[in-house]
Amino acid sequence: MKHLFIVLLACFSFSCFSQVKTIQFNSGKLQEKRELYVSLPASYEKNPTKRYPLLVLLDGDYLLTPFLGPLIYGSHWDDLPEVIIVGISQGKNNQRNIDCGLDQVTGMPDGKSVDFFDFISLELIPSIQRDYRTTNFKIIAGHDLTAAFSNFFLYKDNPLFNAYISMSPELPINMEDDVSKILASTKNPIFYYLSTADGDDKKMQERIKDLDSKIQTNKNPNLNYKFENFKDASHFSLVLNSIPTALYQIFSVAQPISVLEYETKIVTLKEGYVDYLKNKYEIIENSFGIKTPIRITDFKAIEAAILENKDYNELDALAILADKSYPKSMLGDYELATMFEKKGDNPRAARYYMSGFNKEEIADLTKDMMFAKAEELKKTFAKKPKIKGKVGQDVTEKQEATETPAAETPVTEEKKQ
């Protein structure tokens, strides 16, 4: 049922992405033209300064559509960032076997596969980075033969890709040992996703599970690793199950603050709620090269944690961050007003509610709400008229008239006559 849902996602309106372009890439390394499929996000033309992570798909002929579905759906809900996708065509004339052919003794690229490796690293990636607005964060994905081949990019001292989606890799000799050692010792942050299924060849399954065991044994703080073994899935339906999980694993930190993150990582803090929010967005920028404004929902999550823990002074720091992120909005004034209100300083709270009233509305913060809050608080500290006379003594009509405040509505000329 899950993979059927993902298939439906793949049929979701591709209007969310620009039209997929087919490009003939003239490769000196391959001594031929290679067909590429390039998909740009919907916002690419609308936002000429924005940069995007790069996803390179081996087996682009059949992997492009399954990847588009979850990416369109995830970006619609702001769960996944928009990415530039480049799929390499390998489906004609036994091309994938030629591209990924290995030496039978060493299990390493040989002949044409060396050329294909160089084509990706020395021609394709530099060309894409020159012609399109990409960040430095790069992902590569493949299935069985191409999944195994993608691992060779890890063998370099400075791996070309930051994230690897390896779906049912057909591992050559010694690769489970080599990859596990590399991932155990890497000093560069690496995301690695690995999967197999009941429908895989039994020997293939055993070697993939052996690779998983070796990776699990060697803990490395620089490695973000996930393994999945799908029951009742075939070698091919495994792809439809793997892709969403892999994408969410890689971009988990870039997602909005969830209920789980709030309950397990934020509200349990004793202090430093605003620092948590700052660090979250610094990680997003440093990891993926994505500069994105702090979401309003994330501001509200931090505000909720501060209020729940009654650490009201932190609202001051949250207000400073709000003014930096949304300088024309009433968000910063609202946070200060809330702080003073919670601390019992109603005059200052009312002042900031009124200050926010003069700025732009944002999310569920409106001018009517800010004005109403200010007026409500003013009632709590407005001066009450002093009653002359002793306790219990009737106030004369003259005294009442003297102490009755002047009408706020001006008297018109007509009333004077």
Topology, please?
Layout: H1 2-10, E1 21-27, E2 32-39, E3 52-57, H2 60-76, E4 84-88, H3 95-99, H4 112-131, E5 134-143, H5 145-150, E6 163-167, H6 175-185, E7 190-197, H7 202-217, E8 223-230, H8 237-250, H9 259-266, H10 273-288, H11 296-308, H12 314-325, H13 331-342, H14 346-357, H15 367-381, H16 397-403, H17 413-416
Parallel strand pairs: 3-4, 3-5, 5-6, 6-7, 7-8
Antiparallel strand pairs: 1-2, 2-4
Helix pairs in contact: 1-2, 1-8, 2-8, 6-7, 11-12, 12-13, 13-14, 14-15
Descriptive account of the structure:
With 417 residues, the protein is an alpha/beta fold. It folds into two domains: 2-254, 3-Layer(aba) Sandwich (Rossmann fold); 259-381, Serine Threonine Protein Phosphatase 5, Tetratricopeptide repeat. Helix content is 47%, strand content 14%. It has 17 helices and eight strands. The chain has helices at residues 2-10, 60-76, 95-99, 112-131, 145-150, 175-185, 202-217, 237-250, 259-266, 273-288, 296-308, 314-325, 331-342, 346-357, 367-381, 397-403, 413-416, and strands at residues 21-27, 32-39, 52-57, 84-88, 134-143, 163-167, 190-197, 223-230. It has an eight-stranded mixed β-sheet, with helices on both faces. The radius of gyration is 31 Å and the shape is elongated. The chain starts with a helix and ends with a helix. Residues 385-417 are annotated as: Disordered. Residues 1-18 form the signal peptide. InterPro entries: AB_hydrolase_fold (IPR029058), Esterase-like (IPR000801), Mycobacterial_A85_antigen (IPR050583), TPR-like_helical_dom_sf (IPR011990). Pfam families: Esterase (PF00756). Keywords: Signal.
